[in-house]
Design a protein that fits this description.
Udp-n-acetylmuramoylalanyl-d-glutamate--2,6- Diaminopimelate Ligase, Chain: A, domain 1, six-stranded mixed sheet, five-stranded mixed sheet, 2 domains, binds zinc ion, alpha/beta, 9 helices
Length: about 250
């Protein structure tokens, strides 16, 4: 298919126009060759991913964290080398940030709920005027230790957990740096809150609301969305899809 067809499909399917306030310049950030056969998917736009993409003859890279944030100021240093790799290899870069956290089907948070067998009840975690996270219920009440084993077994993580004494039943999930959503935990009756990166600020709020805190890693909680979009493109268009894994451990 052509680059134009693919980008028009993704823009529409992922609802980019609903997120005008996202700092990420979502959509096609760098234009490469006109025909697309092979799509690389990755979490971060960085040299490691770009160099792998060039070796694997990828036509378009789909990432969660793109390369243009808050407008283009200059093309120097690390940014220059990254862009040079893509331009020399004629690879397109497509980024999808908040729309891919929030998306009800392919989004990181909906995907995390599915993967962890949590039945989705609703959305929460307001950010830039949109509720980007999800919350839901486990099939039955379980211990925090058992729930952490489920996360680690599913995502291949080493989740750090802070227990405030509650059993796990109502779980809120906001991928990546979503700690701010702890502020809404009480409102939705959430007993356990899962996000990516640890935050000092979350501790006392969670302590006072008696909400267990789980940090499974920014990277690990943001791989499900890009993988889901890869699956969609494979099934719908028969494109060759390759996940370029570059875990940060953070
Ligand atoms: Zn992120």
């Amino acid at each position: 298919m052509t680059l134009i067809e693919l980008t028009e499909f993704l823009d529409e399917e992922l609802g980019l126009s609903k997120f005008p306030g996202d700092e990420s310049s979502n959509g096609l950030q760098i234009e490469g060759r006109a025909d697309i056969r092979k799509v690389g998917i990755a979490v971060d736009a960085c040299a490691h991913v770009f160099n792998s993409a060039a070796k694997k003859n990828i036509d378009l890279l789909f990432v969660h964290h793109g390369i243009i944030w808050g407008g283009l100021k200059n093309i120097r240093g690390v940014i220059k080398s990254r862009i040079k790799t893509l331009l020399e290899s004629d690879i397109s870069l497509y980024a999808c940030h908040l729309p891919l956290d929030q998306h009800p089907e392919y989004g990181n948070n909906s995907q995390l709920l599915n993967l962890l067998s949590i039945k989705k009840i609703g959305e929460f975690g307001e950010y830039h005027g949109k509720r980007i996270g999800c919350w839901g219920k486990t099939a039955r009440e379980m211990s925090l230790a058992d729930f952490v084993s489920r996360i680690d077994g599913t995502l291949g993580t080493e989740t750090s957990s802070i227990s405030f004494g509650r059993k796990v039943r109502n779980v809120g999930v906001v991928s990546g740096g979503g700690w701010f959503a702890i502020n809404e935990a009480e409102k939705y009756g959430i007993d356990t809150f899962l996000t990516g990166e640890p935050s000092h600020s979350a501790y006392t709020l969670a302590e006072e609301m008696k909400v267990n805190l789980l940090f499974a890693g920014h990277y690990a909680t943001e791989t499900p969305g890009v993988k889901a979009v890869g699956e969609l493109l494979r099934k719908k268009f028969g494109l060759d899809i390759e996940f370029i894994d570059h875990p940060t451990g953070l």
